[in-house]
Backbone:
């Protein structure tokens, strides 16, 4: 349950609006970094790769700001129920976004190295994995901003498709790597890029799980490892 | 339906923890023409802390005071419908002796109110009133009550000192000890920390948590954090009705009713 009724203390609402705006802005920056890193890789655009590395600091700073606003909100207003979940979730989403941006930086650095070498024809193989990972990130953020538990929960299932695709790509690139030859280094880079995209998918799932908690107070993390009695206690 | 007398002993009379210590059934209560409680139904479990929360005038203190018939002293105040069942007896029935009832249901008030007598006499007052005159028995009751109130170590060397010389927090814990001296099953607390500083408040809250193994505690508080910290169950009252009653965790994590959410999160107009 969530209430749209304003708080009696206007500053409480201002702190919440500020927290929400910071997370949305950070999400935009993290997604932009990922997009530019992949464009850098696919289009061999060195400037975009450099921009991703340079702009990562902004994402780090946004995470610090969100944690600070979150802590201040906890200390000053003692939020409960959906308000408390909003603060906790925002801080956790910020942490996941920071890691997504770190993976974008990893991809950009791999791309920067690959750009200095002859073009590798297998690079576009990675595009569908990126499309899926990016879709997961977008849906995770929609689930968070719209308080949509159903969408948030759906990410877990779709992550399995992403994992399968990742596995197939790794098999392909590993086989080519083992063949040796001048392109071996490129395949090593592509394996790491694929690994980053798979991890980004996992981080999107984390955000989706946080969105479920935000919307419905249900903690669906690690549910497959939990005994039924434990699940009930958690609800 | 139910016997109209309470057992005279101070024992729990086989009351199991599964059986509610207090059962409120369809209760209406009025001060003259003004109805202040409407269709209140709730079971208060034994050996747990139950918090009543809600805005001023919502009826939470009125209900608390019904549990030991404190409202009898208010002209025109009366239960107009329903029952309050404690140990099998409808204590809302005028035939139930309020003095006897208060041996089973003690009360601690907002403002600590020790008698202007010694610390010892304050705690021994109840047992003496009930006829206990043996020094050894009184000594034992005083020590046990003060220990349970986590006050013994602080006052054992000055039991003859006047109680009003204690700090505010100590005076409130003394009042709790005084309440416990007649061995009630239920202790009602009406804003017991509202006049205390944060340290004294923490001591009383710690005491409440310790005491629930021996007593059923019902606490009225305006302090949301206090309700969240000390209670097992919370009832939210609004305009004389129970809007929501559930585990404290549920009420403060994910309440069912929007009105509850708005109140606990400071959105109430």
Residues:
């Amino acid at each position: 349950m969530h209430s749209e009724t304003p708080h009696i203390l206007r500053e409480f609402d201002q702190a919440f609006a500020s927290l929400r705006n910071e997370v949305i802005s950070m999400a935009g920056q993290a997604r932009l970094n990922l997009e530019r890193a992949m464009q850098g890789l696919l289009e061999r655009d060195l400037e975009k790769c450099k921009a991703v590395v340079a702009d990562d600091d902004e994402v780090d700073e946004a995470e610090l700001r969100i944690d600070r606003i979150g802590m201040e909100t906890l200390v000053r207003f003692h939020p409960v129920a959906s308000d408390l979940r909003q603060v906790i979730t925002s801080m956790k989403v910020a942490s996941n976004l920071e890691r997504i941006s770190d993976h974008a930086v990893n991809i950009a650095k791999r791309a920067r190295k690959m750009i200095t070498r002859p073009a590798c024809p297998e690079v576009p193989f990675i595009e569908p994995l990126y499309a899926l990972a990016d879709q997961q990130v977008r849906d995770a953020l929609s689930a968070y901003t719209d308080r949509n538990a159903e969408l948030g929960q759906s990410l877990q299932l779709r992550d399995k498709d992403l994992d399968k695709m990742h596995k197939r790509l790794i098999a392909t690139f590993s086989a080519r790597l083992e063949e040796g030859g001048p392109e071996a280094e490129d395949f090593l880079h592509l394996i790491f890029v694929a690994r980053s995209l798979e991890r980004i998918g996992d981080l999107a799932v984390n955000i989706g799980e946080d969105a479920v908690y935000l919307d419905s107070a249900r903690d669906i993390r690690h549910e497959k490892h939990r005994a039924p009695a434990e699940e009930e206690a958690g609800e | 339906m139910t016997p109209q007398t309470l057992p005279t002993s101070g024992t729990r009379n086989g009351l199991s923890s599964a059986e509610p210590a207090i059962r409120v059934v369809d209760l209406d209560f009025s001060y003259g023409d003004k109805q202040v409680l409407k269709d209140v139904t709730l079971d208060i479990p034994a050996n747990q802390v139950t918090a009543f929360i809600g805005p001023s005038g919502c009826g939470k203190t009125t209900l608390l005071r019904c549990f030991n018939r404190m409202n009898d002293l208010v002209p025109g105040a009366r239960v107009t419908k329903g029952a309050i069942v404690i140990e099998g007896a409808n204590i809302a029935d005028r035939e139930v002796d309020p003095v006897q009832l208060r041996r089973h249901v003690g009360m601690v008030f907002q403002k600590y109110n020790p008698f202007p007598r010694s610390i010892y006499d304050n705690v021994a007052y109840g047992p003496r009133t009930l006829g206990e005159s043996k020094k050894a028995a009184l000594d034992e009751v005083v020590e046990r009550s003060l220990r349970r109130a986590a006050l013994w170590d602080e006052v054992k060397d000055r039991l003859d000192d006047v109680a009003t010389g204690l700090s505010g927090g100590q005076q409130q814990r003394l009042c709790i000890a005084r309440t416990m001296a007649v061995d009630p099953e239920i202790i009602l607390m009406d804003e017991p920390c509202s006049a205390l500083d944060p340290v004294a408040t923490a001591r009383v809250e710690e005491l409440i948590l310790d005491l629930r193994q021996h007593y059923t505690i019902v606490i009225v508080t305006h302090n949301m954090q206090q309700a969240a910290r000390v209670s097992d169950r919370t009832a939210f009252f609004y305009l004389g009705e129970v809007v929501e009653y559930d585990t404290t965790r549920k009420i403060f994590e994910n309440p069912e009713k929007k009105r509850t959410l708005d109140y606990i999160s400071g959105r109430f107009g």
Residues 135-148 of chain B form the longest helix (14 residues). The longest strand of chain B covers residues 20-31.
